[in-house]
Write the structure tokens for this entry.
Amino acid sequence: MKQKTYNNVLKAGKLIQKKGYDKKESLEMAVKLFDELGSLNNGMSIEWMIDKLSIKQ
């Protein structure tokens, strides 16, 4: 279970990096997004939440 969660955070981090964030920042954001997603309990995917992030300028 831990490995699956870790891999999901890494994948989310890579998607966030594509928006211009650095590696450390993107991984921290990914963890926060997973936490928010769990508390929202609205059935939306992490990709949906990442899509809502703005591109870093």
Q: What stands out?
A: Residues 2-51 form one domain. The chain has a mean pLDDT of 87.
